[in-house]
Amino acid sequence: MTAATETQRAIHAVWRIESARLIAGLTRVVRDVGRAEELAQDALVVALEQWPKTGVPSNPGAWLMATAKHRAIDELRRNQRLERKHEELGHELQAEQDASTPDLDAKLDDDVGDDLLRLVFTACHPVLSSEARVALTLRLLGGLTTDEIARAFLVPEPTVAQRIVRAKRTLAEAKVPFEVPRGPELAERLSSVLGVIYLIFNEGYSATAGDDWMRPELCQDALRLGRILAGLAPNEPEVHGLVAMMEIQASRMRARTGPKGEPILLLDQNRALWDQLLIRRGLAALERAEKVDGPRGPYVLQAAIAACHARARTAEATDWARIAELYGELVQLMPSPVVELNRAVAISMAYGPAEGLRLVDALLPEPSLKSYHLLPSVRGDLLQKLGRFDEARKEFQRAASLTRNERERKLLQERAETCAASARPQS
């Protein structure tokens, strides 16, 4: 690999980590998430031009922020409506030379975590459709491409692209404030925000595309936002449920990959590597959620499922019957072919692969799962357990052709080869 290629990979890695903070800080100044994203992208273009020549800075995030904010300052100074902007933003945009007022540099760098939370709530404003809220926040906070978001939603990429463009335009036209809502408005927008954080965490936990099995920085962002939300809404069980689920899932991160970054599936993981502190935090959050009266919501149920795995010292000790019951509750609460597929896996572990396969086969006509690689992956696993190796091989090959994650593709191809070897007549 050439030095230039290594630098470009480093730039894109930095972008994944820093873009959300960059966009959030810029949005606080320009009050326009669409323009903030454009300014951040401009800074990325400058980095792509300069860093291959000068090398990656010691603090690349600060470099990107400095480049973007100076462009923002220049643009605002050139803007014919600068005086009105000064009135709207007050001291934030007064001359940097005026030592008696707050420095723009300091304002951009202050309260990074709060800015991220404001960015989520801004993108989840009721003026947008629920689909647009989630897509825009994933784009701005998670740095996901439209293709990755489309795969997360199982919808065409052009649909997601249109949602994002229209959402940014709508927010700008409606002059949506860059703030965290309070009171009744907070409750109204909480569901969308939780959905966004959930999808961001999942993208980090199992990346839909790329060379890495996981993107830990997305999990960390989602966890931080979830914990902040739990402080803002202490009596909301679903907030604690989501935090509990994320804490427990995150506890497995070290055990999910091997020395070369290869995926290690749940039942094959070394549970001694699971982070017990995160597990304890997750179980405590689940306990807080379950103390609130009323029926359990989807995040509390998913946290309860994760807790069943966390409490099992070995894979064999897992209470799969209980997990199957919880998935049954979940599918009643939010009917979904993906949830039904997960329930089929739990049923197979509790009552045998034949029973699980029956449920999976019933999902084959489902249009939304046509390009969902986990459907043939699960089916291949069940067929392999039943000794139907040639059929299993074909399913693993199909799953490998559908996934966009290179690590996962290699794993599925290896499983297909194992089935092919098992299917050959023994001499």
From TrEMBL:
Ranges for domain RNA polymerase sigma factor 70 region 4 type: 121-171
Species classification: Bacteria, Pseudomonadati, Myxococcota, Myxococcia, Myxococcales
All residue ranges annotated as the RNA polymerase sigma-70 region domain in the record: 22-81
Keyword annotations of the record: Coiled coil
Domain DUF6596 per the UniProt entry, residue ranges: 189-289
Statement: the UniProt record of this protein carries the keyword Coiled coil: yes
Origin species: Pyxidicoccus parkwayensis
Superkingdom, natural source: Bacteria
InterPro entries according to UniProt: DUF6596, RNA_pol_sigma-70_dom, RNA_pol_sigma70_r2, RNA_pol_sigma70_r4_t2, RNA_pol_sigma_r2, RNA_pol_sigma_r3/r4-like, WH-like_DNA-bd_sf
Protein name per UniProt: RNA polymerase sigma factor
Coiled-coil ranges (or none): 65-99
